[in-house]
């Protein structure tokens, strides 16, 4: 009854982002973790992704190589981090831990989490002003930062309004920086955020 895994029923991950599938337990004296494995069930077939045993960590599915990891040197934490989520990563993931007791008996526990990978459109961006705010003395340096959320990668574009209702494209970075502001820099600026 002492050793039990806790996790969550469902995790929603953002396409191209990363997500953590929790799997934790309270280490108990007299029991040592012998093997830890993560498997995934998709299209009614189950495959082992990750296995940790006496010989180290092994990633057994090539399409997860360089994308999954489990914390090291963190007893009781068997959570799986999946990075650069792909749409086919959706499925049922099972964390299984086998402990060995001093009397050589074994205890096995598992917990299953459903992963749903979704594509999220970029949100309407917000603009953050530098420390000096939006009314800035000439000669000072400042910046404006454009922020949006959604499935990465998100690209940004800055524009400035000019006479006749036209706009001047300025930069394709998230941050617009001035080293030394001039009165001629006064005006209306806006940014656009876009993802796939």
TrEMBL record:
Source organism, top-level taxon: Eukaryota
GO annotation, biological process: negative regulation of complement activation, alternative pathway; negative regulation of interleukin-2 production; negative regulation of macrophage activation; negative regulation of T cell proliferation
Domain Ig-like intervals: 17-112, 125-196
InterPro entries attached to this UniProt entry: Ig-like_dom, Ig-like_dom_sf, Ig-like_fold, Ig_sub, Ig_sub2, Ig_V-set, VSIG4
Single annotated GO MF: complement component C3b binding
Transmembrane region(s): none
Identification of the protein by name: VSIG4 protein
Organism, as annotated: Grallaria varia
Lineage, uppermost ranks: Eukaryota, Metazoa, Chordata, Craniata, Vertebrata
Primary gene name: Vsig4_1
